[in-house]
Every structure is written in structure tokens, then in C-alpha cells.
Amino acid sequence: MSWTAADLPSFAGRTVIVTGANSGLGLVTARELARVGAHVVLACRNTTKGDEAAAAMTGDVEVRKLDLQDLASIREFAASVDRVDVLINNAGIMAVPYALTKDGFESQIGTNHLGHFALTNLLLPKLTDRVVTVSSFMHLLGKISIKDLNWKARPYSAWLAYGQSKLANLLFTSELQRRLDAAGSPLKSHAAHPGYSATNLQGHTGNRMGTRIWDLGNSVFATTADFGARQTLYAASQSLPGNTFIGPKFAMRGPSGPSPRSLLARNQGTAKSLWRLSEQLTGIEFPL
């Protein structure tokens, strides 16, 4: 039988931070971890929606403000954390019109990668177990431009920018694990992808026809948010080798387990270059 959230072990006495936990995959992830005894911090940009989500959960949950498009907000949030066992980098935006974060980053690389890069490094000294970063099989579209990560010189493509950010998630996961191993740390770095789950992520393309296409796709092809979150929960709870990438066996459906990644996602040179650039852009370095 396939592993499901019903197979989660007890998380009693453990603290988990889930970014973007007020809706979609993050909400299901937070709900299920709270159900099995975790103290879950819903790290949300919109705390009103976070409070609404928390009110519908059973267990020990709290809501804290975190805006991944604002480095000052990330620093403030990290400073408020005393100890955390599992960090789940779940929040993300997908194929949105061109925009900049408060710190001048292209919004998708800024939110999906640089924001989580900063948060993770600030929290590493307080972590006891693992980091799980949510990527996507759409990383197959991605190519990292070290010279133009923020789309200042290239014509902007919403989908290619999304693919770059999801590829960055995987390169971040592998380079983080390499650095943890080199530092002699027992912490683990994993990634997960949900397949194609119907969430509100698809409703912000800024294109009416595009949104209609996504609505049709959601109704015909997509799995549920519960299925998508299952991959994250598996990565957050099971004993796995470092740098494991979890997803459905058949890309969009099937049992949870190790998932393939593109050749570009396995390029250690790019991973190291992206890490150095991310440190320069955020002003936050690996602390261990």
C-alpha cells in the first residue's frame, strides 16, 4: 500500500515551521503535522488568512508574520525563533507577471529561492533535524542565469522564470547538504514536488485565458492538495539519505518516493555558483 499522511509518526514535542501555510499544500502540510502532535508555526505573509487556516486545525498551531519578498521581514521572523526541528520551505508563486520584491529581486526567484535561502541560513543554528524545500517537476523548464538571475537583461518569461526558481530550489537543496556534510552537521536537506495538484497557486497568472486553461486542467488532470502535500510530509518524516528529492513515482501520480531531477539540477558547479550569488544578493551566509 502507498504511504499516506495517515502513516505519519508522532511529532509530539517537535516544532515545525511551514512557510505559506495559510492555503494549498502548506495548509494541508501544517494541518497534518499538527494532527500528529507537532507545534506548527504557520509562517504567512497574510496573517489574517493564516489565522483563518489555524482556526480550522486541531492541535498546537500558531501564526507568525513572514514576507519572503522582504529580507527585513525574514530577519525579524528568524530572530523570533528559539528552536525548530523541521523547516518546510513551502511558500511559492508561479508564472506571475514581472514584478520586483522589496529588495529588488525578480519576484519568483526572490520568493521561491532567495527568500527561502535567507530564511534557512538564518535558522540553521536553531535547527535540529531537517530542511524540506518544495520544488516542482517544472524545474525541467529551468536554466540558471548566474549573470542575470533577476531578469534585468533578458526578456521576461513568466514560465521560464518559474522554472529557474524551481531549479534553484533543487540546486539549493544539494549544495546545502554538501555544506552540512562538510561541516559535520547531522542536519538533512531534502526536496519534494507535489506532481500537479489543484491549489490556488494556478490562479495568479495575470492572464484571463491562462487562468481559464489552468481551471480546466485542475478539473481534469490535477490531484488533490492532500496528495501533493503527501510528498512534503514524506520528506519531512521519513528516514532518508541527505539530498533526497521526493515525488510521485509517475511524475504526477503514484506512490511517494525518490524522484528524478534534470541534468542541470545535478550540476555541482552551478549549485556552488548560485549559492555564492545568493549570499551576495541577500547578505546572508552559511552559518555552520
Account of the 3D structure:
By secondary structure, the protein is of the alpha/beta class. It has one domain: NAD(P)-binding Rossmann-like Domain (Rossmann fold, 3-Layer(aba) Sandwich). It is 39% helix and 15% strand. The protein is built from eight helices and eight strands, in the order βαβαβαβαβαβααββα. It has helices at residues 24-35, 47-55, 71-79, 107-123, 158-182, 208-220, 225-237, 268-282, and strands spanning 15-19, 39-44, 60-65, 84-89, 127-134, 188-192, 245-248, 256-258. The chain has an eight-stranded mixed beta sheet, with helices on both faces. Strand 4 (84-89), helix 4 and strand 5 (127-134) form a beta-alpha-beta unit. Helix 4 (107-123) crosses helix 8. The longest helix has 25 residues, at 158-182. The relative contact order is 0.15. The model has no long low-confidence stretch (mean pLDDT 91).
